[in-house]
Give the backbone structure.
Amino acid sequence: MSIDLVKIIKLPKSLDERGNLSFLEEERHIPFKIKRSYWIYDVPGGEARGGHSYHKNEEIIIALSGSFDVILDDGNNKKTYSLNRSYYALFVPKGIWRYMENFSTNSLCFIVASTVFDEEDYQRDYQQFINSKINKS
Ligand code: TYD
């Protein structure tokens, strides 16, 4: 899986004097059916999250509030996305190593996932992740 398939999706925005509203629909604004959502919050300063890839799961990551960095790695190339807008959705395909850091105070990381939670779907060992990429190429 190549890092070139990672993309930022600009979500719709409805702006009026009462404030802003954004939304997403499965298979319309994002390229999969939604099976799960979860959110990460109250991350202490200096902590990192993630540090894994998935065999099957694909995700959309949104900074609903505050900011943080998402570092992505396909085994050959790395790319960092700094998220700080609630209408930017980062699409991360399966098979991409990712971790998140530099969470601002009160940041809220919202994630929409294509599969239900399954610990078996995780690759949590970076060396094994790299080895699996070498064995495939
Ligand atoms: P984990 O995926 O390790 O967090 P992160 O990738 O952000 O570092 O998940 C932390 C814990 O929460 C772990 O015990 C698994 C559990 N968990 C669920 O039970 N369901 C879920 O949907 C997720 C994402 C995690």
